[in-house]
Structure formats: structure tokens, C-alpha cells
Amino acid sequence: MTYYISSDKQQLDIDKVHQAIKASYWGSYRSMEMTKTTIEQSMCFGVYSEKEGQLGFARVLTDHVVFAYIMDVIIFEPYQGKGLGKKLIQHILDQPEINKVHTVALKTKDAHKLYDAFGFQKVGNSDMWMAMDKAKYN
User: What is d(CA 109, CA 127) in angstroms, rounded to the nearest whole number?
Assistant: First the structure.
């Protein structure tokens, strides 16, 4: 499958993103207005196919120096299990605004294995929080 990843928010299929997040375990409470606000206030990434439109989505909050928080990573049905999630995460981590950040964090209930491969580790006793910490402490 030929795909591309873009951070152009104008390309996002907001209805499709909202429906996918609304169907997730973490976003069932979100209204369309909430989804639109989160998109406006975040760095966003869409995965696209010329033939099939948008295939996935993720967003990041960051101060561009100390901390970045990856959220709402979702590959739409029926495109899951094709490696697009891995490609999306790698693309995000390769962004200059993200790859120089000291700590990148996320929460997941069921994708620990995916994030382990990128160097994320469990945070404390949390079943959901994971982080990649590149900060140097004296």
C-alpha cells in the first residue's frame, strides 16, 4: 500500500478522526467540539492513501524542549495490522520538534509492545504511562 504522512491539518478528515476517537477506550466522552479543539491546539499527523483517503491520525503536545506528549494514535479499520502505526510513530519521533525533546511520554492500555520497540519504558507502577527519557541529569 502506498501511503504518506502529513502534518497539514487542512487534510484531516475531522469527522473520521472524531468517530475513531469516540469509539476508542480513551475518547468515548469527547464531543466534536472537543475533538476540533484538541486538533487546533496540537501538532497533528495524518496517514493518507491517494486512493483511500485518511488511514490514521495522531497528535502531539510539546514545548519543543523538555516534554512532548503523544496522544490519540489511531489507525482506522481496516488498515490496522499493516505496520502503519509503527510508521506513524517513527515519523513523529523523527520530527525536529520532537526528536530533540528530553522526555516523550504517552499513555496506552494495549499497545505497550509497539512502543517498547521505540525505546519507551513503563513509568513507575502505571499500567498505562510510558516514556522515553533522553534528559541528562548531573
Answer: 7
